[in-house]
Design brief:
single chain; 126 residues; mainly beta; seven-stranded mixed beta sheet; four-stranded antiparallel beta sheet
């Protein structure tokens, strides 16, 4: 069974940090770029960050640039999102996803992603 499972969500005050993890089972990260997306209450799901295979290139949405860092450990089939200086507007359900392509050009296109995790809630309070 193909599965992506996110860990590490929680509640934090503004200015704080969280680290999300995404573990794959039943599939391999090989030859696939990986991405993080989020859905805030009442909003559409939006692109957050992406990383190429095997990990040499990254791409970030403007609202998170300089605060979030995406990384991957291919040996462990695990994707990470380090989130620093969190803001209340970062409150959302965060999803990881596996892309068809190995590269990250066009990573914001959600239709290019094959598998999605169920998400983990991140709540940032003021």
């Amino acid at each position: 069974q193909v599965q992506l499972v996110e860990f590490g969500g929680g509640s934090v005050q503004a200015g704080g940090s969280l680290r999300l993890s995404c573990v794959a089972s039943g599939l391999t990260f090989s030859n696939s770029a990986m991405g993080w997306f989020r859905r805030a209450p009442g909003k559409d799901r939006e692109f957050v960050a992406a990383i190429s295979w095997p990990g040499g290139s990254t791409l970030y949405a403007d609202p998170v640039k300089g605060r979030f860092t995406i990384s991957r450990d291919n040996a462990k089939n695990t994707l990470y999102l380090e989130m620093n200086t969190l803001k209340t507007e970062d409150t959302a359900v965060y999803h990881c996803a596996q892309r068809r392509q190995a590269y990250i050009r066009g990573s914001a296109h959600q239709e290019d992603y094959l598998y999605w995790g169920q998400g983990t809630q991140v709540t940032v309070s003021s």
